[in-house]
Amino acid sequence: MDRATFSGVVAIIAGVSVYLLYQQAATVAAQTGESDYTAVDAASTLVDEMTNGLANAVAPTAASQMDISEAGALFIRSRERCSLTKYRLGDGGETIGWGHYGAYGTLPDSITQDQADALFADDVQSRAAKWVRLYVTADLTQEQFDALCSIAYNMSPRSFKKFADAVNAGNGIDAMANQSVSWVAANLQNGIQNRRNAEMALFDSGVYA
Question: Which residues are tagged catalytic?
Answer without folding.
Answer: 80
